[in-house]
């Protein structure tokens, strides 16, 4: 509805229509309906009488000295005088109107009860004006200028009467017409609901649909038939009464006179009743929906076909089948009558307890066809940093806050949160990043893909390989049995033992020390038998022995030792008559200074020399040679494990890493000859002969290369993925290789399996100095600078489909550290599960399996 304003007060103006003897006159429409004809409204006082009553009451109030003043719209209720007369006369005329209703219905059978708004009939207009004069109720004080007290006792009684059904019937004729929506009203204002004071300086208030200006007051000149009715009414009313029923419509810029219907609506609203008397606040419930389900579709009204009413051949076939099964005894009457659901015998209930949870509920949940519900990830639980009074270590300093500002939110310790300390919980304000964190949480749930992961109910212990117990893998060394005491040096300190080796028969032990001596020990008694000084001048200088190696052939009692840039060939002088003859024949050429015939490259790299530093009586009466018999001089220092024998005992190789292409040289002791296998400079850290094949293993850098010495080609590359190889040893079968590295790794290669490590073990805390296989027992050991020796059970199977079994069985705390060195060398006994260890503390110890 349009908004009407008067003196700055906004009021709602309903549809301007009149109700006259069942006829409705409206500005916008006038409808006729025979069925909706209503009885005429009750007779009311004449307008003149109303005016006189109002004036007389005003005079009486002024004389009584009433000082209360109000605005033009100040009254809130009716006065007791004219309102009571109006309702009394309406109640008296109620009965008379009921009797006259039937007569009026007969007279107006052909009349619709309403006329169209556009009618030009003058008679109808005059009749309507007469009814307005005679039945117009007195105006409410809200629209009069009377100065009355707000809501007297009479007004309260009138409001109570309004709720009564009898009183509602009085004014029903004024409201029993078709309500028109405010959307149907036509207004002259085209500018919308905007303040009209914006147009105070202009002569128009908007534009019409054609784009022309709507001038101020232009709407007042557009008058139709209804406007004529109101104009004629205004002529008959006095100027003072006209103002009582007139309000100013500021939106459309004109004055509007309220109709009796609108006055009645306002009076009912002020009294707290419904605007329309026929409105039912509590209507009876009507069930508009039926419980029957109607079939809707193409065949909903289809006529049943004739075949539906004929006997079914399919049912006859089923009956014949059932009769045949009944004759054969496959079914009985109980099955046909439905007493039995199946002819199978019912199983007796089992009294055994059943599992309440089978354990496969999760599988059923995953295998169902419906989409799997994926629950959202849980929000991280609040921690101590989110407390209102966190500990001091959680509160950041200014420097930390500056560092946090430079970091991304994800890299900060607590994200957007900055822990703060408050005196109490009431002092904690709203979290400033709450909306942002909630938004990012929603983004994560919306954008981040989620996938249901099947939880594996696996026992963690089942993932650990079922290794045998250590006591089931005996024998292996566990107990310290014997210590070989090395003589101290001139300053009283114990020399560091750099290398050791055991003879093939396991009777003799050779050690190389930092003082330049090679010592020969008897294993069984621990007695020191011989000492050979390998320094340049006997008794002078320093030349630590880096490596010692017994000849692997048990018939050759020869020992190799390296010191600085020299390699010495030593005859131990032990053995029987036959072995002594073979040893003398092997050393005959080497003891005379070599056989010659060296190439120019080899002559630059190595030099064979006769060296005789002995003079003692041999330990064996059958031996003819004892002591150092030959010396090989090199251009560089020999490595720690730079001397290795071939399995047959005639060839040996030396490693001098600093000499470039001639770093690896192969020597033949029986002929006193040497050869250089490589022509290019390369980095080499460890070398090893294959036991049964003409293969040479060369470790350098990050690769271990395998060369075929006969074909002079590279066979294979192994990738240990380590920094530097310090020790290398080949299994007696020739199919497995172990490496020891500076980065504390023990690497096992299965040569038939892959060029990558089969297993990498990291049990030491410092650099590994030596790794060795036992020739007879499935044992392996490693020593490192931490002073420990780790013993492993290592079974190698002939079946290529089975992987080696590697089980750590013992950690031997063998030596204590001196400087940065701990356990420097290890060697297995060739016939027993014993191990010899040497360390920087000057001790050589035998460990047995007692």
Helix and strand topology:
Elements: E1 3-6, E2 9-12, E3 17-20, E4 23-26, H1 47-63, H2 80-107, H3 122-135, H4 153-162, H5 165-170, H6 172-175, E5 204-207, E6 213-215, H7 225-236, H8 239-244, E7 246-249, E8 254-257, H9 260-270, H10 313-327, H11 333-336, H12 361-367, H13 398-406, H14 434-447, H15 460-463, E9 479-485, E10 497-502, E11 508-513, E12 517-522, E13 528-533, E14 545-550, E15 558-563, E16 566-571, H16 577-587, H17 600-605, E17 606-613, E18 627-634, E19 643-645, E20 651-655, E21 664-668, E22 673-675, E23 686-689, E24 695-700, E25 703-708, E26 713-718, E27 725-730, E28 736-741, E29 746-750, E30 759-761, E31 768-773, E32 779-784, E33 788-795, E34 805-813, E35 823-828, E36 835-839, E37 843-848
Antiparallel strand pairs: 1-2, 3-4, 5-6, 7-8, 9-37, 10-11, 11-12, 12-13, 14-15, 15-16, 16-18, 17-18, 19-20, 20-21, 21-22, 23-24, 24-25, 25-26, 27-28, 28-29, 29-30, 31-32, 32-33, 33-34, 35-36, 36-37
């Amino acid at each position: 509805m349009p908004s009407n304003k008067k003196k700055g007060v906004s009021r709602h103006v309903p549809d301007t229509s009149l109700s006259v003897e069942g006829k409705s006159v409206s500005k916008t429409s006038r409808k006729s309906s025979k069925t909706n004809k209503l009885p005429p409204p009750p007779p009311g006082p004449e307008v003149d009488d109303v005016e006189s009553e109002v004036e007389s009451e005003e005079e009486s109030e002024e004389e009584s000295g009433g000082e209360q003043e109000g605005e033009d719209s100040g009254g809130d209720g009716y006065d007791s005088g004219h309102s009571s007369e109006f309702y009394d006369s309406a109640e008296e005329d109620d009965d008379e109107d009921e009797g006259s209703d039937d007569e009026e219905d007969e007279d107006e059978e052909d009349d619709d009860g309403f006329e169209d708004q556009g009618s030009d009939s003058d008679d109808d207009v005059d009749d309507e004006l007469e009814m307005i004069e005679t039945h117009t109720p007195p105006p409410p004080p809200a629209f009069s200028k009377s100065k009355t007290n707000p809501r007297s006792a009479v007004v309260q009684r009138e409001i109570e009467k309004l709720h009564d059904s009898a009183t509602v019937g009085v004014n029903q004729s004024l409201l029993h017409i078709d309500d028109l929506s405010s959307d149907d009203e036509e207004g002259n204002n085209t500018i919308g609901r905007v303040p009209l004071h914006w147009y105070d300086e202009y002569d128009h208030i908007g534009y019409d649909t054609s784009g022309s200006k709507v001038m101020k007051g232009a709407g007042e000149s557009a008058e139709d038939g209804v406007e004529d009715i109101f104009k004629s009414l205004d002529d008959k009313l006095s100027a003072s009464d006209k103002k009582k029923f007139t309000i100013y419509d500021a939106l459309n810029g004109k004055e509007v006179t309220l109709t009796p219907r609108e006055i009645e609506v306002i009076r009912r609203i002020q009294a707290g009743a419904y605007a329309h008397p026929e409105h039912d606040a509590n209507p009876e419930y009507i069930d508009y929906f039926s419980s029957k389900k109607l079939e809707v579709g193409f065949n909903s009204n289809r006529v049943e076909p004739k075949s539906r009413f004929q006997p079914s051949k399919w049912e006859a076939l089923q009956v014949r089948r059932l009769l045949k099964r009944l004759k054969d005894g496959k079914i009985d009457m109980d099955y046909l009558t439905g007493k039995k659901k199946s002819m199978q015998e019912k199983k007796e209930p089992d009294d055994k307890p059943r599992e309440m949870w089978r354990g496969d509920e999760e599988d059923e949940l995953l295998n169902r066809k419906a989409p799997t519900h994926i629950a959202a990830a849980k929000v991280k639980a609040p921690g101590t940093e989110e407390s209102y009074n966190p500990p001091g270590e959680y509160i950041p300093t200014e420097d930390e806050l500056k560092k946090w500002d430079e970091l991304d939110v994800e890299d900060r310790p607590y994200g957007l949160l900055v822990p703060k300390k408050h005196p109490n919980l009431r002092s904690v304000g709203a979290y400033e990043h709450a909306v942002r964190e909630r938004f990012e949480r929603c983004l994560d749930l919306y954008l981040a893909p989620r996938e249901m992961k099947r939880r594996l109910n696996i026992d963690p212990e089942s993932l650990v390989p079922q290794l045998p117990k250590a006591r089931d893998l005996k024998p292996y060394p566990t107990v310290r049995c014997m210590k070989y005491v090395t003589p101290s040096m001139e300053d009283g300190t114990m020399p560091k033992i750099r290398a050791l080796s055991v003879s093939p028969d396991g009777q003799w032990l050779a050690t190389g020390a930092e003082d330049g001596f090679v010592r020969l020990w008897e294993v069984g008694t621990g007695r020191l038998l011989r000492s050979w000084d390998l320094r340049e001048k006997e008794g002078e200088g320093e030349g630590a022995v880096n490596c010692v190696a017994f000849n692997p052939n048990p018939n050759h009692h020869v020992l190799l030792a390296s010191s600085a840039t020299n390699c010495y060939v030593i005859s131990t002088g032990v053995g029987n008559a036959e072995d002594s003859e073979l040893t003398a024949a092997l050393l005959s050429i080497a003891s005379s200074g070599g056989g010659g015939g060296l190439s120019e490259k080899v002559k630059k790299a190595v030099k064979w020399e006769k060296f005789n530093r002995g003079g003692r009586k041999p330990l064996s009466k059958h031996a003819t040679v004892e002591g150092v018999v030959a010396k090989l001089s090199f251009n560089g220092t020999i490595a720690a494990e730079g001397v290795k024998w071939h399995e047959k005992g005639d060839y040996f190789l030396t490693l001098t890493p600093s000499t470039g292409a001639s770093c690896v040289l192969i020597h033949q002791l029986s002929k006193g000859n040497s050869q250089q296998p490589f022509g290019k400079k390369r980095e080499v850290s460890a070398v090893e002969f294959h036991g049964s094949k003409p293969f040479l293993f060369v470790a350098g850098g990050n690769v271990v290369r395998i060369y075929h010495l006969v074909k002079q080609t590279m066979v294979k590359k192994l990738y240990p993925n380590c920094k530097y190889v310090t020790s290398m040893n080949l299994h007696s079968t020739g199919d497995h290789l172990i490496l020891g590295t500076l980065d504390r790794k023990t690497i096992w290669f299965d040569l038939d399996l892959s060029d990558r490590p089969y297993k990498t073990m990291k049990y030491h805390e410092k650099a590994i100095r030596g790794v060795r296989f036992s020739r007879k027992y499935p044992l392996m050991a490693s020593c490192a600078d931490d002073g420990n020796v780790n013993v492993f059970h290592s079974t190698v199977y002939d079946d290529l489909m089975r992987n080696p079994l590697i089980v750590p069985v013992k950690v031997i705390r063998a030596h204590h550290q001196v400087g940065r060195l701990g356990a420097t060398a290890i060697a297995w006994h060739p016939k027993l599960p014993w191990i010899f260890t040497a360390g920087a503390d000057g001790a050589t110890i035998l460990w047995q399996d007692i």
